[in-house]
Design brief:
With 667 residues, the protein is an alpha+beta fold. It is 27% helix and 32% strand. It contains 17 helices and 39 strands. It binds adenosine-5'-diphosphate (ADP) (2 copies) and magnesium ion. Residues 131, 156, 158, 162-165, 200-203, 206, 208, 232, 235, 275, 277, 292-293, 444 line the site of one adenosine-5'-diphosphate.
């Protein structure tokens, strides 16, 4: 086993690898960009090396810097995590050249699976079923159109170099083919520097079922069963579970053996995932699954496999990379119970899952135990930046059966408190509680089909919620005033009084807020004998330093989590998150002046422009969408104002720091 390894990644996966290393007595080296100097993975590692500025292409993607960091710290091996350099054959080669062990497959295996077309051809030779289609070298548009017609509509055009759901277009009829092909080629060239495509039969009711495989350097290979990742948005996974609901034993064995054959065909070593698509138009059938692609790395959703097999896959990776044999044989592996993973993201499901960023003003995960696991790279107070994947955590639950696991997931999500960026927590909870999901009626169209149930119109806050919000605001003000007075060294000063004296002479106040764009208000009066009258109820409340508000509203006791960041007030009551904006009557109209415009936070491509010159826009209103790395980023108005000019067009590549939107100067 190694004495010391370097982890060429960040976020939850870097932290997760460190956990296993610590248990095995392996010392760890983290790497970090400017944006991650205070990140959790840096704090957890034994050593950390700075590798450059925030954009990944200048830090986490620079092979030379990673190798230099390993040399400088005396690390013997490099774990690439997922994403970044994990599927770059060049990285595996650079490690070998530097005398370091790459904790992953040989460069040749990465290359064999790197292009979807070549991988499919290879799999056909190995007798692994592939999705019917065309994956040849000839890219003549007329010929591709003829192939598509032959395959039969609908078809799916895919970038051969694709990943992350990019460069894919579904085509339903011959007349739409040419435009879709051009679109897929454009996106593929921009994202992967390679415009080659393949064409597949589009399965109308598919499930995404993948097999975890493992190989060692002695020629052994096993499968650790399947994961069902059918619940997707924009062809990307949202919920994953193991085992797949209603999976027949015969089909599991057939798929497992096909995946092992795939691994053996390329001399695979380490952890890999063979992704299959199953046609479930007639239910799950052992003769209706097809190879899609192989991911030659540890997968995001590997924890569900760990939960049902009782194995630590990172430990397996380390042992195999150190030259040991696989810890278990196929016959020693078995499935125990059911596990589900939910990806908790900083994103807004109601706005087509656009990522959101910002400081995690409150971050209180549910408690973990033998049933509930949380893999995360952030802590309360950390910031979700636009530079990297906006995943906050992976929440994984285990129980004896699927229904039990679903109940645990819903309960854990209910107790996940996050204030700051918008998150998908409520959406995930509705997913888990949906009767069709509970019934296992899955396919990749699930989210679209149940959109109305999963994304209900936002509810107006009740009087009770408004009363809690008003109390939260008043309590926050009292606390701030007390702190200010204590700091001033004169706690007796009238400025420290917050019993209404400062608000106006009658002790009346109206707390004004905005919820979902609508102004709301709640009357609140201070009572001489202490406490308040909120609306027409006598009320009292305490707010502790952890942000827990305990309120009594006319005898009704309620608890809420409160986070106030600038003018953003978040209230979490019984698992429901309410977001308000405070309206400060004293705020100067233009105290955020000097806003020449909005600059691009990173280099990227403009994919949507949502406003035009002359528009009056409100603070926070989305102006355009920028695509960078694998993500789309919404650029919002920093202030209320009128737009003078938009300096970017759809499709344009922009550099960091460029003024994208100019505002009119206030007269
Ligand atoms: P998976 O099948 O494991 O979800 P995908 O093929 O969707 O993987 O994407 C490749 C991996 O890269 C994913 O694990 C994804 O989370 C990760 N990833 C996406 N964006 C980034 C990023 N900005 N930085 C690092 N990793 C990323
Ligand atoms: P990526 O490299 O982006 O992960 P994949 O080939 O793995 O690309 O496909 C991603 C997703 O697209 C799958 O999980 C599935 O939901 C959908 N998909 C892929 N191929 C097909 C197909 N032939 N028919 C229907 N859906 C498909
Ligand atoms: Mg895939």
């Amino acid at each position: 086993m190694f004495d010391k390894i370097l982890i060429a990644n960040r976020g939850e996966i870097a932290c997760r690898v460190i956990d296993t290393c610590r248990r095995l007595g392996v010392r760890t080296v983290a790497v970090y960009s400017d944006a991650d100097a205070e990140a959790r993975h840096v704090a957890l590692a034994d050593e950390a090396v700075h590798i450059g500025p925030a954009p990944a292409r200048d830090s986490y993607l620079v092979i030379d810097r990673i190798i230099a960091a390993a040399r400088r710290t005396g690390a013997q091996a490099i774990h690439p995590g997922y994403g970044f350099l994990s599927e770059k054959a060049e990285m595996a080669r650079a490690c070998a050249a530097a005398g370091l062990v790459f904790i992953g497959p040989p460069a040749s295996a990465i290359e064999a699976m790197g292009l979807k077309g070549a991988a499919k051809a290879l799999m056909q030779q190995a007798q692994v079923p592939v999705v019917p289609g065309y994956h040849g070298d000839d890219q003549d548009p007329g010929m591709l159109a003829a192939k598509a017609a032959e395959i039969g509509w609908p078809v799916l055009i895919k970038a051969v170099a694709g990943g992350g759901g990019k460069g894919m277009r579904r085509v339903d009829a011959a007349e739409d083919f040419a435009a879709a092909l051009a679109g897929a080629q454009r996106e593929a060239a921009a994202s992967f520097g390679d415009d080659k495509v393949l064409i597949e039969k589009y399965l109308v009711k598919p499930r995404h079922i993948e097999i975890q495989v493992f190989g060692d350097t002695r020629g052994n290979a096993v499968y650790l069963f399947e994961r069902d990742c059918s619940v997707q948005r924009r062809h990307q996974k949202v919920l994953e579970e193991a085992p797949a609901p209603d999976m027949p034993a015969e089909m599991r064995a057939r798929m497992g053996e096909a995946a092992v054959a795939a691994a053996k065909a390329i001399g695979y070593v380490g952890a890999g995932t063979v992704e299959f698509i199953a046609d479930v138009a007639d239910g799950l059938r052992a003769d209706r699954f097809y190879f899609m692609e192989m991911n030659t790395r540890l997968q995001v959703e590997h924890p569900v496999t760990e939960m049902i097999t009782g194995q630590d896959l990172v430990e397996w990776q380390l042992r195999v990379a150190a030259g040991e044999a696989l810890p278990l044989t196929q016959g020693q592996l078995a499935i125990d119970g059911h596990a589900i993973e939910a990806r908790v993201y900083a994103e807004d499901p109601a706005r087509n899952f656009l990522p959101s960023t910002g400081r995690l003003a409150r971050l209180r995960p549910p408690s973990t135990d033998a049933h509930v696991r949380i893999d995360t790279g952030v802590r309360e107070g950390d910031t979700v930046t636009p530079f990297y994947d906006p995943m906050i955590a992976k929440l994984i639950v285990w129980d004896r059966d699927r229904q039990g696991a679903l109940r645990r997931m819903a309960a854990a999500l209910q107790n996940y408190e996050i204030a700051g960026p918008t998150t998908n927590v409520a959406f995930l909870r509705r997913l888990c509680l949906h009767p069709a999901f509970a019934a296992g009626d899955l396919d990749t169209g699930f989210i679209e089909r149940h959109r109305a149930d999963l994304l209900p119109d936002s509810e107006a806050p009740s009087d009770t919620i408004l009363a809690l919000a008003a109390l939260a605001v008043v309590k926050e003000r009292e606390q701030a005033a007390r702190e200010a007075a204590a700091a001033s060294g004169d706690p007796g000063s009238p400025w420290a009084r917050t019993d209404g004296w400062r608000l106006n002479d009658e002790g009346h106040d109206v707390v004004r807020l905005v919820h979902g764009g609508t102004p709301v208000a709640m009357a609140l009066r201070y009572r001489k004998q202490g406490g308040y009258v909120v609306g027409d109820l006598a009320a009292s409340a305490t707010l502790d330093s952890a942000g827990t508000l305990e309120a009594d509203l006319g005898g009704l006791r309620l608890r809420a989590a409160v986070a106030l960041a600038g003018s953003d007030l978040t209230l979490i009551v019984q698992g429901v998150t309410w977001r308000f904006t405070l309206v400060d009557p004293f705020a100067a109209e233009d105290d955020e002046g000097g806003h020449g415009g909005v600059t691009s936070p990173m280099p990227g491509k403009v994919i949507q422009v949502l406003a035009q010159a002359g528009d009056a826009v409100a603070k926070g209103q989305p102006l355009l969408i920028l695509e960078a790395m694998k993500m789309e980023h919404t650029i919002a108005a920093p202030v209320d104002g009128r737009i003078a000019a938009i300096n970017a067009a759809v499709g344009e590549q922009v550099n960091e720091g460029v003024v994208l939107v100019a505002f009119e100067e206030d007269a």
